[in-house]
Amino acid sequence: MPSNRFLSSLFLLGAVLSFSAGSALAFKTVIIDAGHGGRDLGAADSYVYEKHINLDVARRLERSLKEAGFKTVMTRTTDEFIALSERSSRANRYRNAVFVSVHFNSAYRTSAVGIETFYRTSSSENFARYVQTELIANMGSTDRGVKTANFSVLRHTKHPAILIEGGFISNRTERGQMMDPQFRQVIADSIARGIIQFNRRRF
Ligand SMILES: [Zn+2]
Q1: 3-state secondary structure string across 43-67
Q2: Cβ-contact 40, 52 below 8 angstroms
Q3: Domain coordinates of the chain in residue numbers?
Q4: Which residue from 32, 38, 70, 97 puts its CA 20 to 30 A from 23's CA?
Q5: Strand order through the sheet with 143-148
Q6: 10 Å Cβ neighbour count for 96?
Q7: How far is the CA of 7 from the centre of ligand 1 (A)?
Q8: Which parts of the chain have pLDDT scores under 70?
Q9: How far is the CA of 102 from the centre of ligand 1 (A)?
């Protein structure tokens, strides 16, 4: 039968191990939401559809985050329609997670360009800032800033949650960039870096 002293040192070791694991990764799971899908095309111009770009960037982001040691959950992995409420209820099944929704923009004024990141509550503001900072540092795009918005997926997801608008499909130059797989890879890697930064500095 182990002595009380042995039991208490085992307990301490467990506490130290779980503390260090916890501080290495404040959250372990990233829920990746590729916007639109199926009959919901999202923005569209000159046969470029937002739903396809979103899914491609989401898949690249999934790969980068897995390599960094995160668990990932995709709200969709194919070109299918998923209701907004279903996206957040899928996300809310997980604990210790953050939520990132990937979108591209469109505007009537075709000269509109740049990247912006939205959040809803103050608990997600730093998350938005880390990701936006990485995107602007790596993409060479116009910085449209970090903004609040009452989007459904941000409102109904219980995790720290952001929605990225990664450029304008309605702008000829940015649309051209989006067609380049290397450009989409840099977007995905920048989002991943922002998530890693947020995870390290959250506490
Ligand atoms: Zn969209």
Answers
A1: CEECCEEHHHHHHHHHHHHHHHHHH
A2: no
A3: 26-201
A4: 32
A5: 71-74, 29-34, 97-105, 161-168, 115-119, 143-148
A6: 12
A7: 55
A8: 1-25, 202-203
A9: 8
**In the CATH scheme, what is the homologous superfamily, with its name and number, of domain 26-201?**
Zn-dependent exopeptidases (3.40.630.40)
* Contact yes or no for 100/159 (Cβ under 8 A): no
pLDDT of residue 20: 39
Helix axes 181-201, 125-139, angle to 10 degrees: 140
- The β-bridge partners of 48 are 45
pLDDT in tens, 97-121: 999 999 999 999 999 999 999 999 9
102 contacts 187 by C-beta, under 8 angstroms: no
**CA 36–ligand 1 middle distance (angstroms):** 6
Identify the three-state secondary structure at position 108.
Answer: coil
CA of 50 to the centre of ligand 1 (A): 7
User: For residue 50, how far is the Cα from the chain centroid?
Assistant: 16
Read off the pLDDT of residues 53-74 as tens digits, 9 standing for 90 and up. 999 999 999 999 999 999 999 9
- How many angstroms is it from 23 CA to the middle of ligand 1? 34
Q: Give 39 Cα–ligand 1 centroid separation in angstroms.
A: 13
Place of tokens 């990701």: 131
What are residue 81's phi and psi, to 5 degrees?
Answer: -80, 130
Global confidence as pTM: 0.87
Phi-psi region of 117 (alpha: psi -120 to 50; beta: other; left: phi over 0): beta
